[in-house]
Amino acid sequence: MIFLQLFYVFSKIGIFNFGGGYAMLSLIQDEVVNKHHWMTVNEFTDIVAISQSTPGPIGINCATYTGYTAVIHAGFPTWAAVLGAVLASLSVIWLPFLLMVSISKFLLKHSKSKEINNMFASLRLAIVGLIAAAAIMLMSKENFGDVKESPFVFFVSITIFILSFVGTRLYKIHPILMILLCGLAGLLIY
Amino acid sequence: MGLYTEMFLTFAKIGSFTIGGGYAMIQMMEKEVVEKKKWLDHEEFMDTLVVAQSTPGLFAIDMASHIGLKLKGFKGGIVGALATALPSIVAILLIAMFFQTFKDNVYIEKIFMGVRPCVVALILAPCFNMARKAKVNKKNWWIPLASVLLIAAWGVSPIWCILAAGIGGFIYGKIKI
């Protein structure tokens, strides 16, 4: 049952999400793309681009979009897909909310303790790995083109990748502007 | 205007105007909640940051629900969380509907062929800053490396990496003198 699956998967993604939107990407990709095949790698990459350029947290954006498309792919009408989108988005929120309500006082009292500090220090380290893994998993044939079958697309993609990396890191170009420029480049080149 | 309505409008506004999340959101939240509405003082706002950082879930929504909780208890928390999430749910629903109609459009595909490699670069770029902030050094470099290998090369669920890092760090903190 698609609605129960959406609820279960996005509740899991919500409660294991430490470290913000990007840290969540590898969790979402693992569940939504690799395990349940609700989205292709291309669709997932596109929704990350859309999330970057629309308001709100990336986790909610991904949940809403996945909920909608997964229900449509399962053969339901639009109103059911809207329901699925809302359900998936709320699933991300409810468990962390209940947890926060029950432990916020405890946390404020113990946030300086050695155990909690060490826990977050090592979580932060793992999250660097999680984000790098999300990027590496997206460096695929689907996103960059096949070297043998479409060498031109592959060459253009690598060039765009390097320019975007240098542009945002060294020249501090705003991510949204960078996305727009690359979209324009795609439209003109291909 | 009741406090609930005012809370709803304020958090919906924060949800609609923070694009890309992160630090821009924190600044806007502080301006609205501390300076304009005076719902919290600066110290209480810092507490909210600590709670949001140390609980799982989405940062903006954690903050909004904690502020709502302080103002009006459990119901206030729910209002804060829902109001922050609502604008992005509506925006993405409209976009999803648009894409279902135009997904085979050749121009849109061309645009996204250019955008996809850029997205990968945008995800990778902040890794280096984060590594510095997470204080990667000679003793702990294997933790991020191990998570990359487990997830990207062996297909292990990231959930296991988070559990291992959290529990491992907690125990290490307990036994360290």
Secondary structure elements and their pairing?
The complex is a heterodimer of chains A (190) and B (177).
Chain A: H1 2-15, H2 20-35, H3 41-53, H4 58-73, H5 78-110, H6 114-138, H7 141-144, H8 151-169, H9 175-189
Chain B: H1 3-17, H2 23-36, H3 42-54, H4 59-102, H5 106-133, H6 142-153, H7 158-175
Task: Describe the fold and architecture.
The complex is a heterodimer of chains A (190) and B (177). Chain A has helices at 2-15, 20-35, 41-53, 58-73, 78-110, 114-138, 141-144, 151-169, 175-189. By secondary structure, chain A is mostly helical. In chain A, helix 4 packs antiparallel against helix 5 and helix 8 (151-169) packs antiparallel against helix 9. The model of chain B has no long low-confidence stretch (mean pLDDT 89). Chain B is mainly α. Chain B has helices at 3-17, 23-36, 42-54, 59-102, 106-133, 142-153, 158-175. In chain B, helix 1 (3-17) packs antiparallel against helix 2 (23-36) and helix 3 (42-54) packs across helix 4. The chains are: A mainly alpha (190), B mainly alpha (177). At the A-B interface, helix 1, helix 2, helix 3, helix 4 and helix 5 of A face helix 1, helix 3, helix 4, helix 5 and helix 6 of B.
